[in-house]
């Protein structure tokens, strides 16, 4: 029987194509969100936000918490039994689901618009394509100022780094 890893499943290394598909599903175009929020601030009432508020009852990771008996009793008493609402209330939730800017952002995200590799990859691209640094002492770290060293960099089969043995 294979042994389970001691780290959580979400820390496992995933293939590059799977990571790219996950990134493309989580899309938020900053320019369109900014222009929509500045343009709709005078049209829609104050509770409206282009980025929808968090509703814990719709979060799939919190389902087990909301299924417990004690939580069900509190939900019934607070009239939140049908999926509940966010902290802003039912009217704000309805605006964030059915208004034109919300529908526009949802359709953009489904189509994969606003995806930019530079924006999404962030720190993952930091040292990805670094050119080799060849200093004064050359590629191998020591000077080759004699003709013999210029022609034959090493008398061994392969060049080793200082402090390591070739065997």
From TrEMBL:
InterPro entries: SPMAP1 (IPR028027). It holds the Pfam family SPMAP1-like. It comes from the Eukaryota. This is Uncharacterized protein.
């Amino acid at each position: 029987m294979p042994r389970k890893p001691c780290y959580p499943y979400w820390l496992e290394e995933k293939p590059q194509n799977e990571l790219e598909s996950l990134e493309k599903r989580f899309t938020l175009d900053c320019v369109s969100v900014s222009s929509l929020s500045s343009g709709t601030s005078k049209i829609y009432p104050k509770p409206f936000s282009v980025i929808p508020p968090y509703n814990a009852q719709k979060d799939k990771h919190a389902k087990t918490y909301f299924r417990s008996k004690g939580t069900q009793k509190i939900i019934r008493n607070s009239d939140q039994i049908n999926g509940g609402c966010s902290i802003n209330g039912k009217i704000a939730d309805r605006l964030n689901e059915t208004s034109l800017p919300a529908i526009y952002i949802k359709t953009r995200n489904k189509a994969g618009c606003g995806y930019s590799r530079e924006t999404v990859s962030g720190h993952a691209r930091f040292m990805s394509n670094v050119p080799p640094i060849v200093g004064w002492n050359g590629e191998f770290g020591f000077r080759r100022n004699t003709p013999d060293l210029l022609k034959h960099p090493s008398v061994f089969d392969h060049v080793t780094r200082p402090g390591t043995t070739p065997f």
